[in-house]
Amino acid sequence: GNPNSYATSNSAVPLSDQALAGWHASTDGGRHYISTWANPFPLPSMFTNYTRDILTINQFSSADPGATVVNGDLHMPREYDWSFNIQRELPQNFIVELGYTANRGLGLLATDLISHYPANLLVPQYAVPMQKNVASPNAGETFETTITGSIQQLGLLEYQYPYYGRVQVSGINEGNSSYKALTVRAEHRLSKGVQVLVNYTYSKSMDDVGGPDGGGKAAQSVSSFHDVWGLSTNDQSHRLNIAYTVEFPFGRGHHFLRTPTGFAGKALDAVVGGWQLAGNWAYNTGTPVTLTGNSTSNINNGIKVNQTWASYAGSDHNLTPTNYASDSQLLYSSVDPIPTLSSSSAIRRLDPSKVVTAQLFVVGNLPYNNDAYRQPSFRQMDMSLSKNFTIREGWKLQVRGEAQNAFNIRGFGNYNASVGSNNYGLITSAGNTERKIQVSARINF
């Protein structure tokens, strides 16, 4: 691939000589074009010469917002899987299976800064002195910007490598994940027109990266991605799935009316024979609520601490209000009047009075994911009903009706967990899509 795509997010550090004409090479917004096929790069500023020296690298890498580079030792992560299953066959075509399944991910790709602002200095009493401008020891080594140059805020000089500016490294093979699950499978093999398969999983998923190259979790800027080790954002403790097929015991070849004869028998077979019901019922518990809330407030952006979390407002860390009883109290449509945050009569899943948004020079203390608060569970029933008609020997007509979310279960969408939002603690969307029915017919021959 293009190395510049991996070297930096803002083309700060060039890797080779480059020629760029810009957007259609126009200096007046497209009224006139200065480039031609004969001379596509007429201006000297359209050329960038690659210079490999310390001063150039320091200057370009310190330019706000800094460089994003790729770890030179990047390699494929390692994944280990192990499982144990025991199966027992029971009478009447039943099978039961118990299992243990585990997965361990090591060396997962993560993204981190090469240096962090010291967390012990991100406290309110240092807010004023750390934002004062002082003469920089890096003068002449960096560009003159609002962040770097001969004058800098004192806080910017507290980083481990202040002369590099903000350098973010991706492709670090230090991420970890863990998954453990107890599985139960019960199956009734097709017998007498009935087939049932039940799968249940009780599991726990942990990680510190949350997705490819740290794309799922975001640590505070004073911390490493290791500090968000905990429940995965997609962890679901319980999952249950039941699939079934039932052939009605009426009509040709079945228990009742096995061999229809005469006009009456054949007519009755055409009405009650060949029916089949099938369906799938799914249930799973919700994922953990991410309680960091207003995590990208940039309130400490002056010293490049771009991300800090919200905090508990006091010593009471129980975020469940006393008047909360069920999710039905929280659901608001797009046309409902939303109660204000200060409304004491409004019922919310998360109490807004017990949290505060990201604060100046404060390291947030809300846990990234907390098992005590999970999004609403999900359940849905899909069904199909079909009938087979015998046209003649070897020819059959099947008419089939299928329904997704057959009982039109509305369900509940996720809680709004953005601290400070007027919708905080409320549900403003349904959890399921609406019922959908389709009818089809086909001929088998």
Describe this structure in words.
- The protein has 4 helices and 19 strands.
- 21% of the residues are buried.
- It has helices at residues 3-7, 54-62, 127-130, 262-272; strands spanning 18-19, 47-48, 68-70, 78-90, 94-113, 133-135, 151-153, 168-191, 194-207, 230-231, 238-247, 275-284, 288-290, 311-312, 355-356, 369-374, 378-392, 395-404, 436-444.
- Strands 3, 4, 5, 8, 9, 10, 11, 12, 17, 18 and 19 form an 11-stranded mixed β-sheet that branches. Strands 1-2 form a two-stranded antiparallel sheet. Strands 6-7 form a two-stranded antiparallel sheet.
- It has 445 residues and is mainly beta.
- The longest helix has 11 residues, at 262-272.
- It is elongated.
- The protein is 7% helix and 34% strand.
Short description:
By secondary structure, this protein is mostly beta strands.
Helix count, DSSP H or I runs of 4 or more residues:
4
Beta-strand portion reads 25-35%
Residue share in helix? under 10%
Question: What's the gyration radius in Å?
Answer: 31 Å
Oligomer: single chain
Which structural category fits the helices and strands? mainly beta
Low-confidence stretches: none
Mean pLDDT figure: 86
List the secondary-structure elements in sequence, H or E: HEEHEEEHEEEEEEHEEEEEEEE
